[in-house]
Amino acid sequence: MFARSIRLITKFTNAVEIPDNFIEKGIKLRGRVHRVMENGLEVEHIPITLPIISSLQRRWQSNGHLMIRLAGLQMTDEGKTWLREQIKPSRVVWFQPLRRANSFIDCIVRLNKGGFFSVSLNEEILRKGLGRAVSIEGLHSNPKLYWKLQTRLLKAELKALKKGEGIWKEPTLFERISNNLQNSKILHNLHNLISWVRSLRKK
């Protein structure tokens, strides 16, 4: 118990510093966003501060940022753009570490929307059709948590599918005609290429 309390007031600056039991139990941590990267977030971990030893904590804390990826989804380019619009530098988020992947940590990331209300960015991206749900890795030792999180992500994706949001949007008549014409052109070019190859063989 004492060891866990010490770890809660410790600032983590890289993936290997986060204790295994934090990841196994999905303990939520708080952090300040430094920047949005191509494949995730760079976050400064904010440990629990104890007023009595706050000055000592600052002396103990080292500099460094955690590299976080949103678990359970593959974002589209539009999803990455949306994420940059939603999360500005210095914005505080909560993240639930699920797995280490080299220097990255796969997490469920929540953004506070005011008061006690927060939203899962993983689910929100899927709900808007800005990504596809994929299997969450690293939770085989905690099947209950795995099914809980995976079910929520799949439900979010299903909502986007039903509403035709983002990548699930039905193409317009003009888009379907354009796609058909483009496919016909590709087939025509392929047919010409095959005919050319056959003519070479006959020579």
The count of β-strands is 8
Helix content: 40-55%
Radius of gyration: 23 Å
- Measured by DSSP, the beta-strand proportion falls in 15-25%
Could you name the ranges where pLDDT drops below 50 across 5 or more consecutive residues? none
Spatial order of the strands in the main sheet? 1-2-3-6-5
How would you characterize the largest beta sheet? 5 strands, mixed, barrel
User: What order do the helices and strands follow?
Assistant: HHEEHEEHEEEHEHH
Mean pLDDT: 81
Shape: elongated
Distance between the termini: 83 Å
Please identify the structural class as seen in this structure: alpha+beta
Count of helical segments? 7
Oligomer: single chain
Account of the protein in words:
- The chain is an alpha+beta fold and 203 residues long.
- The chain is built from seven helices and eight strands; from the N terminus they run ααββαββαβββαβαα.
- It has helices at residues 2-8, 20-25, 54-60, 77-86, 121-127, 143-163, 173-202, and strands at residues 29-37, 40-45, 66-70, 73-75, 92-101, 104-112, 118-120, 131-133.
- The strands form two sheets. Strands 1-2-3-6-5 form a five-stranded mixed beta barrel. A two-stranded antiparallel ribbon has the order 4-8.
- It is elongated and about 80 Å long.
List the helices and strands and how they pair.
Layout: H1 2-8, H2 20-25, E1 29-37, E2 40-45, H3 54-60, E3 66-70, E4 73-75, H4 77-86, E5 92-101, E6 104-112, E7 118-120, H5 121-127, E8 131-133, H6 143-163, H7 173-202
Parallel strand pairs: 3-6
Antiparallel strand pairs: 1-2, 1-5, 2-3, 4-8, 5-6, 6-7
Helix pairs in contact: 5-6
